[in-house]
Structure formats: structure tokens, C-alpha cells
Amino acid sequence: GGLRRGWNASRQKVPPRVRILEASWKFAVGDHVEFANRANEKLYRQRGKIIEIRPDENRVVVDGINPQKKLVRRTEEGEGGAKTIWGPVHYSNIALIDPTTNQAMRSELKTRGNKKVRVLKPSGYVLPFPKGQPLIRPSEGDSPFDTAAQHVHEITYKGYDE
Fold it and tell me: Residue 29's closest CA among 8, 53, 48, 9?
């Protein structure tokens, strides 16, 4: 037979061609979401708050959705045994909750001025990202960190050709 490879953390990651860019994620830590996949009746319509985002796997961990048992070894600090943790779910299986109607809705990303906001589809409610989210860099004008056009072709490193 062939060589059988064991489990590896890198095998769990989504290839870069399929990975969702972090700038286009519609979810943030602290959002209230609902599990919206009807195929899984056990989790369907359960609600919770996002506690972790895993962009390498295209998954999110939601408090209250997908409970799993984890066996923990007894240590000096605490007891061992089975503990409940929240397992990750795919980002496509959750939907944001509209605070006005308390219903799960689809959303899209839009830029309003200099900020990235989420617009909930049927109602049009604008749901801003929680505080601490980065702003979209303005496309117009120069930043103080940009290199001026007249200095682009200057050789600043001495000693390479000498």
C-alpha cells in the first residue's frame, strides 16, 4: 500500500483559492447570529454570539451552537473530566439577527463614507461593525506612509553592487 499520512493541522485549513478574504467577512466577534441550515435539524434556528472567527478554515465559533464534549486531563490547577466546548460551524450556515425585527436575515457589505457597514437585505437596516474594527483605507489621496512619485526610482540601499 501507499504511505498513509496522519492528521495534520495544515490539512484542516482551506486552500487560499477557496478562502474568504478577511476584508470581505460579514461577521465580527460579538455579533448575534442564528444557525440557518435546515439540513441539520438539531442546530437549526439556534442562536448565539460569535466568540471566535477562524478565517483559515472559513468557520466561526458561536456560543450556544454546536456543543461538543472534550476530555480534559486532571492538573494541579483544576479537575479533569468531560467539559463542553463550542465547535466551529461554517460561515455560510449562520445569518445575522436584525435587532429591530429579531429575525435572521442575509446581509451585504457596503461602504458608507470611510466605514464598512453591513446592510441587512430585506429590511435595509444598517448594522455597523463593533468598535475596534479597522476602517477601509481611503483610495483617494496620498497617505503619509506612501513613497512620493519623484523618489520611487531612487536607490536607497548602498553596498549591494559595490
Answer: 53
- Residues near 31 by beta carbon (within 8 Å), at least 6 away in sequence: 49, 50, 96, 130
pLDDT in tens, 71-114: 988 888 888 899 998 999 998 899 999 989 999 998 888 888 88
Nearest in space to 13 (alpha carbons), one of 54, 52, 57, 55:
57
C-alpha cell at 119: 446592510
Structure pTM?
A: 0.66
Q: For Cα atoms 12, 28, 57, give the angle at the middle one, nearest 5 degrees.
A: 5
68 closest CA partner among 90, 89, 83, 47:
83
Centre a 10 Å sphere on the Cβ of residue 77 and count the other Cβ atoms it contains.
5
Rounded CA-CA distance 104/96 in Å is: 5
Residue-by-residue DSSP string for 128-142? EPPTTPPPPPPSSS-
What count of Cα atoms within 13 Å lies in the side-chain half-sphere of residue 38? 0
130: nearest Cα among 115, 151, 147: 115
Which of left, alpha, beta for 63 (phi over 0: left; psi -120 to 50: alpha)?
A: beta
Of 87, 93, 88, 86, the closest CA to residue 39 belongs to 93
